[in-house]
Amino acid sequence: MKNAFTRHISPAVIFFAVVFSALNVSAAEINTPTLSVTGYGEVVAKPDMAEFSVAIQADRSQAKQAKTAVDKVVENFIFSLTQSGMERKSIVSSHLRLSPQYNYPKDGKPVLNGYRAVREITVTVEQLDKLNTYLDLALQSGVNQVNSINLKVKDETQYKQQARQAAIADAKQKAQELAKGFDSELNGVWSIIYRSNSVRPVMMAKAMAMESRSADQGYQDEEMTISDQVDVIFKLKN
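^ Oxidative stress defense protein, sequence as received from the core. Prediction below:
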């Protein structure tokens, strides 16, 4: 009889039992006194490397002429960089982008005016004191556009770990102070939500590269911030 009764329990009854059990667990969780805090950590680092991106653009009447003009500048720039001691692996050049250029008269159809060729080069500078030298080489080689200059740190992982530990310590300190202020005590951790690192690189003005910095305007004087965040729910003693 017991087995027969078990076989005839409807799915609806089983579903209700599962939901009721889950509600009991949720109720137990809600009844547990908790304290929620967010821990923040920041580390200020001095840049010791850089990455800059430049572009070479040429407008010519013929597509082949535009391509040849751009390729020549790219070749000269890469040669100058390697001659100055930079490793080839630190230089990344993009494929050629070639597009027709049109004039759009008020009356009439668009008129082909020529072709524009563009290539980009990204350079990783391991020795920050040579950044100005490489930027000067870019200008001397015929580079006519600076896309970005970002100052960075080589051992970024180390600073990220320091920021994370600072965030954890901040969360613990806040929780202890709040619990004490409300005449309670912490009783372990209920949950942790990690928000991951945030790195704010130093982005230099594009015009600065075209003008070049003087010797007393060292990039080493700049600072960058690496931050971290963690959300923690602590249990409180009843």
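The radius of gyration is 31 Å.
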